[in-house]
Amino acid sequence: MELIVNGAKTYCYTGGKAFDATKPTVVFIHGVLNDHSVWILQSRYLANHGWNVLAVDLPGHCRSAGEAPATVEQAADFITALLDAAKVPRAALVGHSWGSLIALETASKLKDRISHLVLVGTAFPMKVSPALLDTSLNEPMKALTMINVFSRSTLAAPPSVLGPGTWVYGAGMALGRRVLASNRQVNVFHRGFKACDSYANGENAVVQISCPVLFLLGSQDQMTMPKAAQGLITRARETGKSVQVVKLPVGHHQMSETPDETLFAIRDFLAR
Question: What pTM does this model have?
């Protein structure tokens, strides 16, 4: 599905189903150097079980045109504009890593317009080491190798989202190369990392949201360690939010390392 958002063509994967205004809508937001495809199992399942799915390529990434967002706040404004362009009055948001910060910031601004908030592999602050920031700018292929090692609990994963025999490390490397090559004007790798590193509104944003929130974390995550989400969890609970925390025995790529468990956690939370 293609929409015009802020004057630029925007691609959203719909799970193979036509958009139906009578159904509830869930928006999937990817992380740094990813695209809509990281949500392939979760988006297809929900599209076939009563939901409109908009798994977006963020601006300047792969099939979406426009300027790649330089901050979480800019990306959140884009998600708001996306909902307006799709004429969606209310939606659930599911975000991974950088996408989780975008989802959080969007929910804090739109309040009752967001029905559910799912934060996968989240942390606040989401600091990126100076060495990795520098490498993502000056030696992106080296940085891509680094994060594909750090992001996974094993390089020999069991049958995953793409089926038996999938080489998850190789698939991650190929996706990163494709996303980076899709934008010749901007290094979306470094820009996305910089946006994560500089985001400062997390605790205020989690106070402002008005919907239930699910924290879906990897117990072996080396990119956004579970303890780094504890501040957001505590703050949300202190302010009376409905909070659910699910920890899976994997690293930072919950969607491909534990695809079924990730799907079921999201599915059951959205059914609430």
Answer: 0.97
